Amino acid sequence: MKDQLELAQNIIEIYKKHARAWTELRGQFLYEKAWLDHFLSLLLEHSTILDLGCGSAKPIAAYLIAQGHSVVGVDSSEVMIEMAQENFPEQRWIQADMRQMDLGQKFQGILAWDSFFHLTQDDQRAMFSIFQKHAQPGVVLMFTSGPSHGEAIGDLFGDALYHSSLSQEEYTQLLNDHGFQVIKMVAEDAECAGHTVWLAQKF
């Protein structure tokens, strides 16, 4: 078995390799809708949302766009970005690694759904400064994590898929340290395919 760090470093290559197959597997069913609606309810109309790990832009970015918002999507996979550009050419799609991202733009909403939890624990800690750098006052941040501190290895078409999580206490502290207040958090939400979701706002 490869060590955890090597598996973590391989995430980008896995999503490049399986981009189209994963997109087909993911499908269009929006099981995240209740969370996305809560996220959007905290935004002004016609906000600009940063979608980290945007994939093909379907179904999540598509839903945000349909509600009248603009999306700037970031993904490390050029195939994902190509699909997003094909799907929504009027939006902005950027191939980049979120860990080294500096877009020179601030956003009303930041979303890292099913992407942030592929980073190592140290990389996750460092992301809060990147969130803060791209945040307008009052920004709404939503991300998914694991339910507790640890690492886990999943599977994507036969390739080992790395995940990690900090503790709920540490996420709360990191959010507070960067000026965010937790609005809602549910661990392993049974109504959202078992996702652990954080919704926070910067006041």
UniProtKB/TrEMBL annotation:
InterPro entries listed in its UniProt record: Methyltransf_25 (IPR041698), SAM-dependent_MTases_sf (IPR029063)
GO molecular function: methyltransferase activity
Matching SUPFAM superfamilies: S-adenosyl-L-methionine-dependent methyltransferases (SSF53335)
One Pfam family cited in the UniProt record for this chain: Methyltransf_25
The entry's keywords: Methyltransferase, Transferase
Residue ranges annotated for the Methyltransferase domain, each copy included: 49-138
CDD domains: AdoMet_MTases
Recorded superkingdom: Bacteria
Swiss-Prot/TrEMBL GO biological process terms: methylation
PANTHER family linked to this entry: TRANS-ACONITATE 2-METHYLTRANSFERASE, TRANS-ACONITATE 2-METHYLTRANSFERASE-RELATED
Name this protein carries in UniProt: Class I SAM-dependent methyltransferase
UniProt organism field: Acinetobacter terrae
